[in-house]
Write a structure and sequence with these properties.
Blueprint: E1 5-9, H1 11-22, E2 26-28, H2 30-38, E3 42-48, H3 53-66, E4 70-75, H4 82-86, E5 90-94, H5 97-115
Parallel strand pairs: 1-4, 3-4
Antiparallel strand pairs: 2-5, 3-5
Helix pairs in contact: 1-5, 2-3
């Protein structure tokens, strides 16, 4: 099973996820994520922190099998979580600019935390 990294769903990442959904660059729900993985479209899996253990394990197994990063998403204080933002607890992002934007944002946050 894949190791999950944890990310905080801040305003910038929320915006990128919302744009990816509007652009049709996202699979929503575990079964749709599984289908996207088998088609080779998947680049990242996001799992809401409130997702049950069984579903989280299934998403982790998909991430491991198809070698895509998987993140457990925590909501920032006072902000909606992934399930409130998208309506699903598990989403998969397709390859492209939105995934790159999220990775860049995570990298910037990581660099900022290192400097503190």
């Amino acid at each position: 099973m894949a190791e999950f990294s944890y990310i905080v769903l801040d305003q910038k990442i929320s915006g990128l996820i919302g744009l990816a959904r509007k652009a049709g660059q996202m699979a929503t729900g575990l079964e749709a994520v599984r289908r996207a993985a088998f088609k080779g479209k998947l680049a990242m899996i996001l799992v809401d922190e409130s997702t049950g253990e069984s579903s989280r394990k299934k998403a982790g197994n998909l991430a491991y099998r198809f070698r895509v990063p998987a993140y457990v998403v925590r909501s920032a204080a006072g902000s909606p979580g992934l399930s409130e933002l998208i309506g699903y607890k598990i989403v998969g992002l397709y390859q492209g600019g939105f995934v790159k934007g999220i990775r860049d944002q995570l990298h910037q946050e990581h660099q900022w935390q290192k400097q503190r």
